[in-house]
Amino acid sequence: MAHAGTLEINNLSKQYQVKGEALPVLENISLSIKPGEFVSIVGSSGCGKSTLLRLVIGLEHDYKGEILLDGKKIVGTSLDRGIVFQEHRLFPWLTVEQNVGIGLLNAGLSTAQKNKSVQEHIELVGLKGFETAYPYQLSGGMSQRVAIARALVNRPEVLLLDEPFGALDALTRTHLQQELQRIWEAEGITAILVTHDVEEAVYLSDRVVVMQPRPGRIKRIVDVPLARPRDRGSFAFSQIKDDVLSEFSDTPRGDIALVQPQETLGANWQFAW
Amino acid sequence: MTASTINTNLASVNESNRKSPLRYLHPATIPKPLRGWVIPALLLILWWATYRFGWTQSQLFVPISKVWETAVRLSSTGELWQSLAASLARDLVGFVIGSLIGLLVGGALGLSRLLEDLIGPTFHTLKQISLFAWIPLISLWFGLGDAAKVAFLALAAFFPVVLNSFEGIRSVPREYIEVARVFAYSRTQLLTRVVLPAALPSIFTGVYLALIYAWLATLGAEYLLTSGLGIGNLLTDGREHFWMDYVILGVIVVGIVGFLLNWIASRVEARLLRWRGRSVAQF
Amino acid sequence: MSAQATVDLPLSARQPASLGLHRVIRLANWWPALRRLLLAWPFPMAIFVLWSLASHYQWVAPQVLPTPETVLTTFGDLLRNGDLRSNGVISFYRVIAGFGIGAGIGLALGVGMGLSPTFKDYVYPLFKAFAQVPSLGWLPLLMMLVGIDEALKIILVAKAALVPVALNTFKGIETVPTRYIDVAKVYGFSKWQLLAKVVFPSAFPMIWNGVRYGLTHSWLALVAVELLASSEGLGFLIVYGRQLYQMDVVMAAVVVVGAVGYVLDKVLALIEARLLRWRREAF
User: Fold this and answer.
1) What angle, 0 to 180 degrees and rounded to 10, lies between the N-to-C axes of helices B79-111 and B196-224?
2) What residue ranges do the domains of chain A occupy?
């Protein structure tokens, strides 16, 4: 079993330059995630939740604050952090097993070890028998399973999931949520899931982090002290779900509010010159 | 969407048409696989009838049988095969040289913005010059022999390969590059395992176009740089001596070669790019 | 770079300073373009210098490589005595006439094959066979049939345009997405409404692509045929210069050939940008 990592985020802030203006996307995020914990981050679009994930995986730089994995500051991307993107991002020119195998390219294992690990992970995500299929032959759900296997094949300490089921139909999504839970329990890995689906977050997580936009901040952290597997129909489940959802209802719709400040920014900008 | 769906959508077919006594002559009554042969067959019958009933005395007119006899004669003396071999050898050498240089240049332009800025504008300007306009320059610099022909063919193959490999490399999706970064790929790994395969369909389009252009250029080179053997020379010979049978035979051979080159390209593509499921080569 | 520094200024301070800051911003936006402009020159300049040195010190014979000044003077002479203009006009007329005829027939053929499966079954196989032979392959046959006059050039140029236009029109119509047809059905479009509002707009980008290819091929074919069999036109001017070993004339004519090709393509690109405005907005 993989070593599960401890993730420590301290006073993390990040801003982008838009038309020369500084646009804060994340402000003062502090979050501590225990080994083997499953944490979800929910928020309306534009709250910076995906940016947070991209910072942790190391695809974005130039931030203030610290991101520590097992007490060490993260530098760029590394094989100890795996990620599943919203689009599966499989390479269309590789078969399923080759796609999973690309994660092991720099793992320093023997070919036999690599093959074994690839095979294990294909089985873990339930795609035995599809090893030699090309991505164009797979459904959306199957592709996302391959992406999960590819992210896990290195045995990373943390698994990051960026709205991994956002583009799937509701039935496939529910099924893959159960699968993800099983996989996470089997691997005993630390997991961070970014999603806009509150039910998904409550179903999977130990804690749900609610973020609010402009700039992205943590509004509240909700514990989900329910035993697994969870029953989506139970009263306790809906109570927690409603609790999280209530955090969204009193704020103005994210996308409306998102457009306006930009417009005023633009207007100021024009006046200024 | 196929033509047939549009058609059924378009014409809520005229029922009365179906019942007319002429319906047995209606084009739609001939079985599908035979339809393609109707016009060629009519043309061949017309050709045969013209000869049989002596509708023309023109010396340009030759019967089908004469073309066949010429084909048999030229192939038994080996003249046809020698010409064909000479043309194909030239085509191949020029194509390979041009494509390889094209790949290098296109790859370099695609990978380095500095090189693109330095060489790109000059390249795009030169590309505008109609291909055959190069021949007089090339003939002065390389003579009239095989060197000039191969240089011209290489030039014909060079342009599409540069353009398409450049485009292919530049349009590799950012998402794929990020995946490579997540798995800590080195620069070489990124190039060989992500950029190259992702750009391959586009590169292939370039190589495919190069193949077509090189064949076109082979003919042009053989017409304009008249020395030695080749299908183009066979055609020119036939024309100068008013041997219509030679010319018709030449046109048919040129067509068959074009068809085979297309076919080979589509086979190679299907093999190399089987992960994609569709073809850029067209028949 | 400088842009974000201004953000912190209070509004009142920004407005009076706007002029200067404006310039800074503009410069920042222009820098990539300026860089491209600057970097575009060293490479052609290096070639030019090499050319000048090679020709001045006569590393190669002046008949093979004239000095840049000679080419420029010749260019001026040819412009002044009207040789470039008259030959250019003739070539231009030929390409427009041939292209117009070829594109017209190609469009009709493509539409026919796209809309009527029956028509396609009859015509497409023969069309494909016809398209396998490059324009230059038909040249000797045409020379024998119609001589080497104006008709030869127009027919060959028309053939060069016909194939890509017909093929792309056919494919464009054939691949109109079913979902658009469904929308038209839902709203009870008539046959003509379906054609005018759905099929043609949807197929248009591809048809236009064929038109652009067609024009490029037309120009290519025209220059080739003028090199081979003509007593006027830009191609002829090139051959003429070549025969007299006047490389300056050849180079001047080649430049004009490139320029005309560029202008023809640019005009179509501009029309395309105008006609296909919806494309970028929609996706």
Assistant:
1) 140
2) 1-80+192-273
- For B28, the token pair is 């739609």
At residue C250, the pLDDT reads 87
pLDDT at C197: 82
Quick check: C187 pLDDT over 50?
yes
Instruction: Give me the mean pLDDT over the C39-66 stretch.
Output: 84
Indicate the average pLDDT of chain B. Answer: 82
Chains contacting B (3 or more CB pairs within 8 Å): A, C
Within 13 Å, how many C-alpha atoms sit on residue C273's CB side?
A: 6
* pLDDT at residue B24, rounded to an integer: 56
Contacts of C3 in chain A (CB under 8 A): 17, 19-21
Strand ranges for C61-219 from DSSP E: none
Domains of chain B: 68-272 (1.10.3720.10)
- For residues C172 and C114, what is the distance between their CA atoms, to the nearest angstrom? 8
* Cross-chain Cβ contact C25/A272 below 8 Å: no
pLDDT at position C169 is 93
Whether pTM > 0.80 for this model: the answer is no
> What superfamily in CATH does domain C82-282 come from?
MetI-like (1.10.3720.10)
A102 touches B: beta carbon within 8 Å: yes
The 10s digit of each residue's pLDDT in C199-237 is 888 888 889 889 988 998 899 899 989 988 888 888 898
Q: In chain A, which residues have their Cβ closer than 8 Å to the Cβ of B275? A: 92-95, 134-136
**Angle (deg, nearest 10), helices A170-187 and A140-152:** 20
Contact with chain C for residue B129, Cβ under 8 A: yes
ipTM higher than the 0.85 cut: no
Residue of C nearest to B254 (CA): C133
For testing the chain B interface, which of A60, A93, A95, A143 should be mutated: the one with the most B CBs within 10 Å?
A93
CATH fold of A1-80+192-273: Rossmann fold (3.40.50)
Kindly tell me the sign of the dihedral angle through the C-alpha atoms of C144, C146, C149, C150. Answer: negative
pLDDT at residue A248 in the model: 79
